[in-house]
Amino acid sequence: MSSLASERSIFDLMDSSRYSEADPKDLECFSKIFKVREHPGTLVVSEELAEKYGGLAGERRQRVLSVTNVVITQQTLFNEERTKKPQTFFDTGVGLDDPTSGGGAACDFCQWETLTAEDEWGRVETANVVTASNLFKAHGLHGCLLFKHHDPLQFTSEQVSQLLSAADEWLQQAHAVRPDAQHPLLLWNCLPRAGASQFHGHAQIMLSSVDFPEFERLRHGALEYASSGSKSHVDPEAAVAQYYRDVARAHRAVGLLREFGTEGDKVQCYANMSPLKDMEVVLIGRHLTSSAFATALHNILRCLIDDRGVRTFNVGISGMALGSGQAREGSQAAQIAAPVVARIVSRGSLKSRASDFGALELFGGSSIGHSDPYRVMASLDDFMGKKG
């Protein structure tokens, strides 16, 4: 399946004529949310340096592009020349090293009945997933979602659906025990490079009585964005919902948005043009247990793993509803409720010993864009085309 995304590059954002046929309102969202700037770089390359790295000696020019989401102050820097940057810290091993040699008796999570803790309300269990209480908590309400199979890179759409359903049930039970805890977060770290301490496939679920700073920053940015030019009060949740509608429209304007699902259960996803980390895909849905949301999350991950060679990744999901009084599927309130949002990123090569987080990310607040978002979206288009 050919993809229009395969014919484009992130550097095309500098050429407005490439998007002349886009909806004017979508383009307006793009111009309000994103600032794109080109920063030319000039350097002089010696003959010795050119010979070592296969380049041309003399004065050289490079194009650096910054794409900044001004609402959430997230910036990514792109330079095609950086894809040729030599790496001197490579692990000579196979990279995918399972310290338990395939699980079983050597894996705590394979023996979850006896070697994992329970929450005070017990466990949530499905055919393929079971919950545990995190033995080393980062929050008071902090659980684990364990696949019953061992391999962290092998999972089906049904298994992902059960993971999300178990997470939803865990959140409802945790919220019933502590009603003041109203800030949920689901985290899925695959393999140690992404922060996992166990090889066995698992995710984490938290419910906090204080908001996570990232979402507080999002709320403030969305409120400022929604109230621009308006003197009337704007509800914070409605502001976040408006921001996600508009950021999706911005990506549609430049050909990076896709929609999946059926009438009444649709989701949107886009390859982020200002990715926090490599190959970031953002998935927007109505609720955590949506069939379309689970299917799309599975397909995005399988595309990254099977087609783009990703072996270590992070998934973060926020915006889950709590309690029967909250906005759920089919309710009128769901029209203005903040959506459920999953962010998926690759954490680089397992064979690279160099971190993908450095001082630029930590102290400058900018990320390096390794994979062009249009290449990521082209891969997803091809993957979905093969699935029919």
UniProtKB/TrEMBL annotation:
InterPro entries: HIT-like_sf. It comes from the Eukaryota. This is Uncharacterized protein. It comes from Cymbomonas tetramitiformis. The lineage of its organism: Eukaryota, Viridiplantae, Chlorophyta, Pyramimonadophyceae, Pyramimonadales.
